[in-house]
Amino acid sequence: MNTIDVLLKSLRADAPVLQVLVGAFWTAVVLDTDPPRCGLASTLRPATHPGGPPVPHAGRLLEHSGRELTGWLRSSSTLEASIGMAAFNALLEVDEAACIEVNAEDVILARGTGRSVAIVGHFPFTERVRRAASECWVVELYPRPGDLPAEQATEVLPQADVVALTGTSLINHTFDDLISLCRPDAFVILLGGSAPLTPVLFDYRMDAVAGTRVVDVPAASRPVGQGAPFPQIRGKRLLTMMREEWS
89 with 102, same domain? Predict the structure, then answer.
């Protein structure tokens, strides 16, 4: 059973869908609960869609329950999978008592200073990690100067003491392949607004998960629908769940 199937099987709740917003950078699913709940995920959309619309049911998504939308996380359409990830994060019961308010950057620097670090995805803190690590590889689907193309993950991940994987690896279905490349003794963290804050991932080689909890639905969903990148999305808390106690 792959990780996505395990995550979906772990869900217990369901709720009607109040709103689906597919923004330029982020996707939000708002559930019709009391109070409303919202989940976020990166918007991954294909450059073209010659095989038909990437979301065939667009315009009728509110006819689906939250649980039904989570099943789209299995979709080969990355745009449908983005909606599925946002729905999953909306339905997920997060144990905030098991989380700490520490940035993923701080965790990576604490574990990776003076060591070899591989980061899948180009994050804003990349240059700071490069200065602190003995070796730092950044693997990116669309490489920037100094980054490596995605196919070189097979070369660098097995060398890394610390590996940071983007939560979008669940959306584009590369998570299982990437995690299989990590050394058994490596410290591995899943991070980003898409990353689900669930201890289920600790059974899949994660040592930490750094994700997002929406605490003010209107403040978060409104910017998403208006094309906001992550820093412009308000009404959220950045939380990290650790396998072992943070020190």
Answer: no
Read out DSSP for 32-68?
Answer: --SS-EEEEEE----S--TTS-SSTTTT-GGGSBHHH
Q: Is 118 helix (H, G, I), strand (E, B) or coil?
A: strand
Classify residue 247: in a domain, yes or no: no
For 136, residues 6+ apart whose C-beta sits below 8 A from its C-beta are: 112, 116, 117, 118, 119, 126, 129, 130
| 220/160 same-domain check | yes
Please give the pLDDT value at position 247: 60
Instruction: Output DSSP code: residue 185.
Output: T
For residues 107 and 60, membership in a common domain is answered with: no
Do 212 and 191 meet the contact criterion of CB atoms below 8 Å apart?
A: no
Q: Which amino acid is at 227?
A: G
Evaluated on CA atoms 125, 167, 87, 26, the torsion sign reads positive
Q: What is the pLDDT of residue 52?
A: 77
User: Rounded to the nearest 5°, which phi and psi values hold at 216?
Assistant: -135, 100
Q: For the whole model, what pTM was predicted? A: 0.95
